[in-house]
Amino acid sequence: MATVGIRGIAKGFGTTPVLKGVSLDIAHGEFLTLVGPSGCGKSTLLRIIAGLDYADAGSILIDGQPVDAQAPKQRDVAMVFQSYALYPYMTVAQNIALPLVMRRLSPLQRLPLLGRLLPGTAVQQAQITADVRTVADGLDIAHLLQRKPAQLSGGQRQRVALGRAMVRQPKVFLMDEPLSNLDAKLRVQMRAEIAELHRRLKTTFIYVTHDQAEAMTMSDRVAVMLHGELLQVAPPAVVYRDPASLAVAEFIGSPKINILPAGLRSDRAVESLGLTLPIRLPGHIGSQIHLGLRAEAFDLLPAVRPNANPGVWHGHVTHREDLGADLFLHVQLEHGGHRLVLRSQHAEAASLMVGSPLGLRPKPDQALLFDADGRRLRPALDVAGDGTILAWDTATAEARQFAGHHRV
Amino acid sequence: MSAARPVSERYRMGRLSPAARLLRHLVLLAGATVMLVPFVWMISTSLKPPNEIFSADIALLPQTWHAVENYTAAFTKQPLLRYLANGLLVCAAIFIGQVTFMVPAAYAIAKLRFPGRDALFGIVLLALLIPTQVTAIPLYILFYKIGILDTYAALVVPSVISVFGIFLMRQFFRTVPDDLIHAARLDGCSELAIVWRIVLPTAMPAIVAFGILSLVWHWNDYFWPLLVVTSPELATPPLGIVFFDNQEAGTDFGPLMAGAVIITAPLLLAFLFAQRRFIEGVTMSGVK
Predict the structure, then answer these.
(1) What is the CATH number of the domain that holds A332?
(2) Adjacent-strand bridge partners of A26
(3) Best residue in B176, B180, B187, B208 to probe A by mutation, most A CBs within 10 Å?
(4) Could you tell me if B46 and B261 are in contact, meaning their C-beta atoms sit under 8 angstroms apart?
(5) C-alpha B284, offset from chain centre
(6) What is the rounded CA–CA span in Å between residue B235 and residue B155?
(7) Interface contact flag, B182 A87, Cβ < 8 Å
(8) Which CATH number is A125's domain given?
(9) Do A167 and A24 share a structural domain?
(10) Is the pLDDT of residue B109 over 90?
(11) Which residue among B182, B193, B202 sits closest to A102, beta carbon to beta carbon?
(12) A121 and A192 share a domain?
């Protein structure tokens, strides 16, 4: 268990800045995920935390102590690599044992033949074997201990890599896209196992991924990175429901959030594509803004004659994606030809085929607004005309409360 | 041959006509003959009595077998076993020295980042171009000054740093994934532990290939031992063979050839023993 402090870390390769002054605090036992598209600097940041790479500026603290001058092995962190990085000619048992051998045995005791004759080696070796066994049992790989990595499947190699990281009980676990090389089914299974492992070990985990599903399902907090900067650090639910910027909203969420041009007609009316939403946003009258609507932020209505109902967008289905539990409809709006993706229920979309006309009404309480530069615009906490608090704000308050539990 | 056949089948059938394949084998056969004839003649001569060696007829097998006499003479007229032991000692010492120096050096050049690394590698490449004969005289003078001429050290020391070995290992180490080395650093290995525990075992095919080359080169080396060794008890096998020559009674070719067969045999055995690893090492660039 340890806290990790990241203070103004900057790093460039040549003239290209990779990290631009990243600061972040990670709590004892927290599962924090760094998520971002490839090339955003998240892996570099992880390597700097591990001590495998050097920052141009800034400092890393573990348990409040700066570790910048320490070699990787002194930092007491363990890392799981995307490529697993198992030692190919060692057996699984030797792979898992190596961190213990290097730490517990003296250089003399590690000598191939002579070492065995030295006093204490046998006892230490027995203890190491026992520890390896315990870890292997916990990961269900005890039957593989005598195999070489080449004889294992991807999932088994992943477990061995986890075992090698766990065996010396490090203060911090670093994981660099550990599931990227697994097939989709195994990835979902390993996701649950790693989350379970975190609950069991209660160690600080820093997990790097480009896969938002991994970020959303496993983490206490998600740190969204783009172009070497942290855009938002918050629990997954908050990042999804209350993104800090347009970039975060676009990166997190599958299918991608629908972004439409909008304008403010008055303090309490946002207009987009001929439709007015009752959202109170003081002080922006006349400016062009972006209206973000998640796939589930729509009510589906039967098709009516165009312009018969001013509170509804009209369009037709261009594509149907039936994923079993989910049904996504790709819709082209008649107004301006914008394309939207929306999540719908099988029951209500049963009659909607490619080409079918339909009406859409956005849910104003789920609308996300961004200014022209992509910064988030937050509607004033408002009481609607009929006296109920807008549901959107309730969701935000809920998320903030959730965030509070996790020391944001 | 139809295009619909699977690729593997087409390859098995061979893409050449029978006549072309025959020609190919004839060419290969001719090449193999040119390479093998001296060896065959060497073995043949080692089995013949002196009068048959100089007979005008070409005969592969002797009319009177003289093998026992020749091979006995090879071992008794000169201390051939001593030469073989010298050869083994010198080659082993050179190989151990070469591995000791080239593996860490190659690791540093391939995987560590430090100022001047590329310049250092440039120097290694440059050193590859220098023939041994160029450095022979300065080395000879140096060894004379420090007084180690005519010792085992004089035979071993100039060869323990092999720039070719450094180059070969560096090329191989570059294919070792960085993550493997990062993992080892996090697992608590020092840089030297990484070299010997993590990187070296992955490079075994390359080490074996290099070992064969080194063994062949230094076992057969005639030039350098001739230069620095004068005592017969330090002679390496090729040097020792020469002692069969220049006797007052004239060259005794039977025992000489028997001696040549005996000193060639260890190389053949070593190659056969390590053949699979050797070919792996030579062709490894295609695997990765």
Answers:
(1) 2.40.50.140
(2) A4
(3) B187
(4) yes
(5) 19
(6) 10
(7) no
(8) 3.40.50.300
(9) yes
(10) yes
(11) B193
(12) yes
Chain A positions touching B189 (Cβ under 8 A) are: 73, 98, 102
Q: Which two tokens stand for residue A10?
A: 């900057």
Residues of chain A with Cβ-Cβ distance to B186 below 8 Å are 50, 52, 72-73, 77-79, 99
Residue of B nearest to A72 (CA): B186
User: Is residue A286, in this structure, part of any structural domain at all?
Assistant: yes
Q: How many domains does chain A have?
A: 2
Q: Are A349 and A329 in contact (CB under 8 A)?
A: yes
Model pTM score:
0.79
Within 8 A of A164 by CB-CB distance, chain B residues are: 183, 187
Q: Residue A134 contacts by C-beta under 8 Å, 6 or more apart in sequence?
A: none
Assess whether A208 and A82 both reside in one domain.
Answer: yes
CA gap B211, B220 in Å, rounded:
14
Quick check: B182 and A85 CB within 8 A?
yes
Chain B positions in Cβ-Cβ contact with residue A85 (cut-off 8 Å): 177, 179-180, 182-183
User: In 3D, which of A228, A193, A229, A184 has the Cα closest to residue A80?
Assistant: A193
B197-239 pLDDT, tens per residue? Answer: 899 988 888 898 899 889 989 999 999 999 999 888 899 998 8
Taking the Cβ of residue A82 and every Cβ of chain B, the question of whether any pair is shorter than 8 Å is answered with yes
Q: Write the class of the CATH domain B79-284.
A: mainly alpha
A360: β partners: A300, A313
- Compute the nearest-CA separation of B66 from chain A (Å): 49
Q: How far is A79 from chain B (nearest CA, A)?
A: 7
ipTM tops 0.90: no
Count CA within 13 A, CB hemisphere, residue A239: 31
Could you give the 3-state DSSP secondary structure of residue A179?
coil
Segment 120-179 of chain A within 8 Å of chain B by CB? 164
Rounded to a whole number, what is the distance in Å from the CA of B125 to chain A's nearest CA? 27
Residues A325 and A242 grouped into a single domain: no
Is A206 inside a domain boundary? yes
Q: Does residue A391 lie within any of the structural domains?
A: no
Domain of A323, in residue numbers: 255-373
Same domain, A108 and A191: yes
User: Which sequence spans correspond to the domains of chain B?
Assistant: 7-73, 79-284
Q: Say which of A72, A83, A89 has its CB closest to residue B185.
A: A72
A227 and A286 assigned to the same domain: no
Tokens of A9: 């870390």
Based on the domain organization, do A85 and A196 belong to the same domain?
A: yes
Min Cα–Cα distance to chain B from A285, Å: 54
Closest CA to A258 of A348, A398, A363: A363
Residue A217 resides in a domain: yes
Percent of chain B with pLDDT over 70: 89
Q: Are residues A244 and A259 in the same domain?
A: no
Chain B's closest residue to A161, CA to CA, is B183
What's the gap in Å between the CA of A103 and the closest CA on chain B?
A: 7
pLDDT tens-digit profile of A1-26?
689 999 999 999 888 899 999 999 99
